[in-house]
Structures are given as structure tokens and as C-alpha cells.
Amino acid sequence: MADAPWVELREKFQAALALSRVELHKNPEKEPYKSKYHARALLEEVKALLGPAPEDEDDRPQAEDSLGTGDHTLGLPAELVEAEGPIALGAVRRAVIEFHLGVNHIDTEELSAGEEHLVKCLRLLRKYRMSQDCVSLYIQAQNNLGILWSEREEIESAQAYLESSEALYNQYMKEIGSPPLDPTEHFLSEEEKLAEQERSKRTT
């Protein structure tokens, strides 16, 4: 990726994060989600700049994405596949954007759209979910889906996501143990990335 587009991607992403943190009461009374919508627009711009999904799974849902199968059941250990190379890195960065778009839609009470983005995040990360680069993001996406389903009072579905995220965390800590990468670091320059010592203080 050329330097100029990469700088633009990073700047837009950081601006979107800043807007996402704006408290609702600081928005105009008649537009409580104004900052959220602005953040969403920036995230969509970053997504467009990243291009189509790597590995061209082209947003088709797969059997593994439905609850009760694949990654969302306990007892299915993940294999370690490192997120290396341009295709993998592209998938991970797109997954970060899908995650933040999912959280954004949930924050604005658009739960179905939020669910769709979070599921896309999981699909992009599935094969890399045990890697240091991806485990934290994968767990966060599953936890958010668990919370979403619990708010719908679909306790069985919520429990499936939450138990799956806990199982992945336990497996990662047992087999890998290295401090996981914070998802936002995928849009930082090398100089800006957190030091290993700082990262070790983080929890997934």
C-alpha cells in the first residue's frame, strides 16, 4: 500500500475513533447521534479505501456463521494461523472496520445492522482467530454479539457467543500466552504501536 493512502486511512480511522467517544449529551439535542453518524461515514470511507474483502468471501453467509455450528460452540479448539502477508493483513484491517461499524450501529440502536457487521468481522478473522494479532478483536466481536442477543432476551444464543469467546481466550492463554495486539494498533504506524510492556497490561 502506498504511503499517501495509508496515511489517509490511519487519519480517517483515528478521527472516527475520536468521534465515537464523544458523549451523547455533547451532541445537539435534536441530533443525539450526530457524532456517531459522522464516525460511521469515516469508517465507511476507510472500508472503501481498503477495497473489497480479501479472500473474496464476498459477504456470502456460510454455515459456520450460524449459531450452534462452527466457531460458536464450545469444544472446538482453534488452530494457530498467523495473519501474515497482504491478503491476511487486508482481511484483518477490514475486520477491524467491520467491528467498529457493528458497535457504531448498536450504539445508534440499529441492532440488525450491527449484528451483520460483527458477523462479517468474525468471518474475516475466523482462520486467524488464535493469532496474537487477531484474538482480542475476535473475542470482542463475540462478546458484543453475546450482549446483543442477551438484550433481545435470546439467552441461548447469547450464551453460545459468550462461552465461545471465553473458550478461545482460555485456549489462547494456555497455548500462546503472549499479550494480544489491541485491535486499533492495526491502523497505527510502527512508531506509534504500543510497546510489548504496555501491551501486556491490556486484557482482552
From TrEMBL:
Question: Which residue stretches belong to region Disordered?
Answer: 52-72, 180-204
Q: Compositional bias (Basic and acidic residues) spans?
A: 183-204
**Descriptive protein name:** Kinesin family binding protein
Q: What is the lineage of its organism?
A: Eukaryota, Metazoa, Chordata, Craniata, Vertebrata
